[in-house]
Automatic annotation (TrEMBL):
This is Chromosomal replication initiator protein DnaA. The lineage of its organism: Bacteria, Pseudomonadati, Pseudomonadota, Alphaproteobacteria, Hyphomicrobiales. Its main location: cytoplasm. Residues 161-287 form the AAA+ ATPase domain. Domain I is involved in oligomerization and binding regulators, domain II is flexibile and of varying length in different bacteria, domain III forms the AAA+ region, while domain IV binds dsDNA.
Amino acid sequence: RWSRVKGRLRTSVGEDVYSSWFARMDLEAIQQESVHLSVPTRFLKSWIQTHYSDKVLTCWQAEIPEVNRIEVTVRTPMRAATPAVKDAAAPAEHRREEQRSAPELRSTNATTPAASNHDALGGSPLDPRLTFASFVVGRSNTLAHAAAKQVAEGRRGDPVMFNPLYIHSGVGLGKTHLLQAVTWAGNSGTERKVLYLTAEKFMYGFVAALKTQTSLAFKEALRGIDVLVIDDLQFLQGKTTQAEFCHTLNALIDAGRQVVVAADRPPSDLESLDERVRSRLAGGLVVEMASLGEDLRLGILKSRVVAARAHHASFDVPQPVLEYLARAITHNGRDLEGAINRLLAHSKLNNQPVTLEMAEHEVRDLIRPQEPKRIKIEDIQRVVARQYNVSRSDLLSSRRTANVVRPRQVAMYLAKTLTLRSLPEIGRRFGGRDHTTVLHAVRKIEGLVSKDTTLSDEVESLKRQLQE
Ligand code: ADP
Ligand code: MG
């Protein structure tokens, strides 16, 4: 019977989920209306209880209709490691499975120090240059820097002040630099384990672990970490991985461990993530790093020159050239670094000192002649209102008549695609609507423009009017 129930579970949740959560579940006893199951860890127990208790019950009821209660307990490592003779009805196949899993249980569940798990897990590679020492602080990143520093200097057992720490910004503005700085600083000197993982690495690590049936070890390893640092969270994909990430996040935070996350947008705009993960992420400290101000750009350029001079003592960039570059290159930190590298290469190869002329020539492609026109939400509302012959206050009102609803959705869609405003911000600017309303509108119009040519022409014409 137990093997039939397992078969049903496997079919109902799919092979991946089954091998991840249920492969090590054992039947302990059946007493009248209740079934007693056991798993090796508390983590598995709570996960199964919160996510799969209904499914498990249904699968049992299909075999034994009287069952109306499922109990899950954590078995001790000792007991699990010694194949116990159980329910005489337990099929031989079940006992074999238990024996197979026993050594694994011992290594992950007994007193194995977290360190070995941590080593086995392996973080993403770190760049030795990305430290606090080389991070330049300016107006746009003061708060993010201070928070990161605070996290890095914490010691095991310290109260955690903001959890998770969530840093977001556009590309090339120093998120990875800051996260790796936290990792370097945290791992040197203190007894804490700081693990830096890109979201992709987390994802592949988890999927690989699922394939090799070591996902339990993977989970246990993650939970031995004091500070978990996840970069580029916007790339986290896949339902199972997200569920796993969500659980890891909760488990770590509940255990008083620190989580640091970076992404290219605020939590509310991580549209593919589950609502629970988003709200958990938003529940800590969310810090945005604005684009680099001119002072910061100058600081970064100078620090790059200093770094280059460590290996090329004769290399120097005169102050006017630095100022020119800081003013001309507005885009991101990577371009600043690239500019210095080019000047270095050019002056080395030609054995020439750096001049303003050389700089102008070398970095011309990094300079944006003119920032593209910034489109304002008010402009969008005005143009849309005119096109559909409604008033702007209609768009912001709570009226739901069809002649207002569609233009309003179009306007929100344009606001999302043509500006850098977040969904909550757009909602606020549209008469205080919720971000889910905005998301709904965006998806609606996205879906329609591919089918409805009249609408897609209208949208294109609106875009042209706005970009002029
Ligand atoms: P992101 O992860 O936000 O895309 P990175 O951390 O990769 O950006 O930064 C891009 C480049 O700019 C890196 O070389 C980084 O060292 C540099 N950089 C960005 N911000 C700073 C800063 N405040 N101080 C020093 N270097 C910076
Ligand atoms: Mg990055």
